[in-house]
Each structure stands twice: as structure tokens, then as C-alpha cells.
Amino acid sequence: MHHNHHNIAPSVRNSNPSLPSDHGTPREPAPLFRPTESIRTPQAETALFLQKPSTFPTASQHVDFGLPPPTPAMHSMHDGFQPHMSMAGISPSNQLGPGLQPGPGAQDYYAQSQQQSVRSPGMNVAQGQSQSQISSDQDLPPYDLLYALVDLYFKHINTWCPILHRKSTLDSLFGPSTLDDTDKILLHAIVAATLRYSTDPRLTEEKRRHYHDVSKQRVLLYGMENSSVKALQALVILALDLCGSSNGPPGWNIMALITRSVVQLGLAVESNSFSVSPNYASIYTLRAMVLPEPKDFIEEESRRRLFWMIYLLDRYATIATAFDFALNDKEIDRTLPCRDDLWIKNQKVETRWFHTQDRPPGTPDHDMNKPENLGAFSYYIEILGILSKIHEFLKQPVDIGALGDVEQWQLRYKELDNLLASWKFGLPGEYGNMAKLFQPGGSKTLNCAWVMLHATYHTAVIRLHSSAAYPTTRSPIFTPSYSASQRCLGAVENIAALGEFVVQNGMLNKLGPPFAFTLWVAARLLLVHGSTVEHKLAPQIAFLVDTLRDMGRYWPVAGRYCQLLQRVLDEHSDSERAVGQTGERITPSSVKILADMRRTAFDLDFLISRQPRHLAGAPSRRPSVTPARTPAPNELEYLDVFDFFNVPRLPFSHEASSGPPNSNEMNSDNTGANNENGTMHNGNGNGNGASNEFNITNFMVDASSDWLFKQPN
């Protein structure tokens, strides 16, 4: 059946080459559901080119999970599945592609389910056309199970990915009208993402794998060949599944597709945006609005929320890396999503415009503000915008030996600190006051978007202030800030309080990978703090790791975060026990072991970042660095854990002039580190570059000379 709803192929030729990467995030999801198998060790070239998605050995993914490679069209879209739903033993004959028919046993199973008259819970549509269509589609679960899965989607996923309007979606999928192709594709996406939450006994491991793989391939193939709002909604829901299962090519590839498709469909701008209808039309400002006008406010707001969810996913995929966002601020001219209840009631309202720093001059006034129409999801998007600015700031290299550069860096740092503080201060009390966590009845009034709003605010605080609190390099004019470290610890305490509230009120299974990312950032901050300022680990880390382990039941990336943290903690405990036996304690063991891990991560990043990849087409004067040995698996894990905090980034010239590591050891001296007398040499291109004291081995922070609160002369 052909569906002609805007058959526009989503071109990816103009897509941003900077795909979300795993640099700084776990790369290789361990097969958690098969703990007896040995985990494959990445090869040297894999380790050194982790920042280059194009060189990632995608074929190796199939080896890890004991599965045959999927069809050639899907070669890069393989992903791991949920640990409690292992499908590793499934035979190739059950890897059904869209055009294959199931065997006689499966036909008997579906024939039986068709003969039963099933009444959906709460909906009197048992004899509707959509039921007979669904029942005859052998690639979808039986009708009642399918309805239950859609219900689970709204209970566990739409809570933090609020893009589908419940009533209109159920009417469209299960009402009396005929299902079109896009409705079926949306159903397939919901099945792929929601199977993890179903405990239906009919879902054997084999059937779970069958439904998941078939649905995934249907959505991907349809999304590659068709361009429509529903096709994009389906791709976004599938992206939750792929990005929540592994940090690797499946997630990167689908993110590249949806971030371009949303712009090409015209969803990154309002229909009355200045970029669509400028005063003076030009070839650069005219856009083809390919979608028909929305039929009501529900549809209009659904499109807006679809865009903002793609924005959200792009931000989370990128902030853990040194890459650019796939969705550039220049392409965005949107108003914020409205309060949930107004959308549910189809009550058309206006909301304020999302403010980007890239708005072109001459843009009509965007100062309209109706805060009464904003909800938690609206403010969640705003704080993601601030977190994006922090990411852009930290990506920029800074010459920590040049006073002008350092002063400029500190000025921008303080601007972002003020932006965070003023935004938080401006939140209405019902959204801004975290004390609501501890008030009686708080669990009835606080929803998942409220939790994510605060989790993301505290993640932004850590992202900004950790750069000043725990710099991996320092100089006499670029010194750590004690007050910044206290801001970071305060944010971790608030994240732990949020986590306890979530666990105690049964909300953990209603949150997804973005919440797991916040817990992962907080836990790693405690490890970094323990390696620099404190001589012991904060007790909250155990709770953060346990909560990630619980989330890992549904979202394998959370299990991977937990696994990485647990290994570091186990090594840390072993070190403490060894010190207890020998009695030798030159530096506190908890500091030394964490500092060594962080130093290793810094060295690996140094090697990776020196691969010749920056200046395409231009002759590189930097030597290609070949390590004397292959990094061990535990060293790659240190990179996962600590590289998020490897700031400031040094300028290219200083890094290049410092020379490659020697062959005996990946030595941090190569950054121009460990300048014994503390004097600075001006790197003018023919010297040794800026000499920087390596921060990890110096745990002293002078609280009395804190530049963050230094008064101007």
C-alpha cells in the first residue's frame, strides 16, 4: 500500500559532518545478558580513532552479541538489546526482514489470535477496521498486546519524551478508521522502544527479538524513503531505543538522519518565522514549507514538541564529546512548548520564543512572554539551551599562558555562571523550588519533566564549574577555583536528592537515558573530586551507582555506566586493601589510584586528539603519533570515566609544539607539563610551547586566592 503523504526523501548530503561521538562516553556496550562471555578488547586503531565515527568498525558489533549480520541495507544499524530480554541464541531464520514470511508455527500462532474477539482495555473498538488490519499483520504483536504496549509507552516513555498526544494517538491507531502506512510505522517504533517494559508471558525471548528486529528495520527503511511528521515521530521513538541501548553507530546514524530531516521538513522554525517570510526575500532566506497547515492546536504543538525532542536528543548525544551539535542554533527559530494540560485540552496559546545567540540582526521583536503558558518541559528546553552554550564555551581552546586569553576565558565563564543563576532565579516558584521534593504530597504534583528540568540544571552547573574546579592543566595565571568545586559538590548533592525522591516514589522506570546521564556525570564528578581535593570518596557515589544499575534493567547504557563506575570503585577498594597490608602510604591511596586513572585518561586523549584528522586537504605539520603499546581495556574505561572533565582544551599550536609521547611511557610531560619552577614560557611557535603544571598530582587548592570571586581593582 503506497502512502503519498509528502514523499520527500530526507537528504543527508548537507548534514553536519560532526556526528555525535562516543568520545567521553562508553563505546562498547558489554553483553550484560551474557556475563560468561569474554568482552572483546578494542584494537589499537579502534582506540586511537574513537573520535572518527567513519572509522568505527561496525561489523565488530555483530560479533559481540553472537548475532548474524542483518541485511546489507541495515549494516550499520545493529544494536544491543535489553539485558533482561536476551535474544542471543536466536537463529538466522528468525531474523525476519520486511519482505519475509514467518514459518507455519508462527502462522498458526497468529491465526489463533485472529480468531479471538479481543476487546481493548477501555476502548470499545473490538470490531474496528484497525483491529482486523493489525491482527492480519504478522509482524506486529496480537491486538491486545499491541494496545498494552502503546499504553506502556505513555506510562514509561512519553513521560520524558512528551511528543505524542495520548487521546489523538489512540484514536488514530485503534479507532474505527483505516490504518495508513505511517500509523503502522509509528506502531512499529512504539513496539521496538516499549518491549523492554512488558512482562507479558507470550513474549518469549525469541518473540521479543523477532518483534524488535522487524519493527526496527521497518521504521528505518520507511524513514529513509519517506518524509512526514509521523515517519519522523517513529524515527525519534526508535532513536530512544537505539541510543538507550548503546553508544555507537546505531545511535549516531539515526541521529544524523533525524537532525537533518527535522530541518528539511521545516520543523525547526515557526510557520510565521522571520526566516520563512523575511521583509526582503532572497535565495538564502526562502524556505519551502513542505507540510500542510496543522488541522488544530494539538497537531501544531505535536510538531513543535517533535522538534524540541530532536533538539534534546542532539544535545545529550553531543555534550559528552568535543564535537559540534548537529542542530545549529542558526537553524532554530521556534517558540517553546506549552504546558501539558493546555496541549491535552487543545487550547491554543502563545509561548515565548527560544532565545539563541545567533538570531540575525533585524529579526522582529521576539520579546513576547506569557509565562503562565509554560510548563516543566518548556523550562527543560531552556536549560538545555544554556547547557549548549556551556558546551560551546568549553570546546574552545584557551592559551593558559597568555593573560589576555585567560582573562577572556574567565569573563565568559562568569557570564555563563550569571546566566545560570539568573535563569534559575527567574523560574516560577512551582518549577524553581527544589524544596517541593520534601513537602508532603510532592510526589503527586511533581512529574518527570520537573525532575529532568532540575537534573539538567545541576548537570549544567557541574559542566561549567568543573572546568574551573578541576582543570587538567594549570599555570600561574590559570589556577583551580575552590568555590567552583563547592558549587560542583552542591550540584551532586541535589542530584542525589532528586535520585532518592525518584526511587522512593517509583518514578525511576518513568525516566530514560537523559536521567541516567545526569547520574553518570554526578558519580564521575565525585571520582574527580576524590582525585584532587578530598582524600576520600563521598558516600553518595554508592547510591548513584546502585540507581544506574536499577535503570540498566531497561536501558543498557545505564548498565554500562554502572559497570564502568563499579570497576573503578573495585580497583579503588583493592588499592586501599593493599595499602592496609603493606603499611606504605606516601599519598592517600584513594587520591593516588583515582589520580593515576585520570592521568591515564588524559594521556589517551592526548594520543587520540593528535591523530591527523583536523585539517582536511591541508598539509599537517603535526607528526602522527603511534603509541608504543595498545591501551589496555581498563585504560580505555578510564577515558570513558574521566575524559568529560578534561578541560581546558589547549590551543593547537601548544599541543603540537609539545611533541609526541616518548616510546617508553605515555607521559603527561608532553603537554608541556611539570614545569618545576612554576615559570611560564611564551609558546611562540618555535619554543617548547606553554609549560603547564599538571593538575592531577597537585592536590592543593588555595581558597584564599579564588579568582572566581576576586573583586575588580
Write a compact overview of the structure shown.
The protein has 713 residues and is an all-alpha fold.
What report would you give on this structure?
There is one protein chain. By secondary structure, this protein is an all-alpha fold. The protein has 24 helices and two strands. It has helices spanning 44-48, 60-64, 104-115, 129-136, 143-156, 166-174, 181-194, 205-225, 229-245, 249-264, 297-318, 340-344, 376-395, 403-425, 429-432, 442-445, 448-469, 482-504, 513-532, 540-551, 556-582, 589-609, 633-642, 652-657, and strands spanning 473-474, 693-694. It has a two-stranded antiparallel ribbon. The longest helix has 27 residues, at 556-582. The chain starts with 43 loop residues before the first helix and ends in a 19-residue tail after the last strand. Residues 1-127, 282-288, 612-628 and 654-696 have low confidence and may be disordered.
What portion of residues belong to β-strands?
A: under 5%
Alpha-carbon distance between the two ends: 74 Å
Structural class: mainly alpha
Q: Rg to the nearest angstrom?
A: 26 Å
Query: What is the 3D form?
Result: globular
Low-confidence stretches: 1-127, 282-288, 612-628, 654-696
What descriptive keywords fit this protein?
48% helix; mainly alpha; 24 helices; globular; two-stranded antiparallel ribbon; 713 residues
What is the topological layout?
Blueprint lengths: L43 H5 L11 H5 L39 H12 L13 H8 L6 H14 L9 H9 L6 H14 L10 H21 L3 H17 L3 H16 L32 H22 L21 H5 L31 H20 L7 H23 L3 H4 L9 H4 L2 H22 L3 E2 L7 H23 L8 H20 L7 H12 L4 H27 L6 H21 L23 H10 L9 H6 L35 E2 L19
Antiparallel strand pairs: 1-2
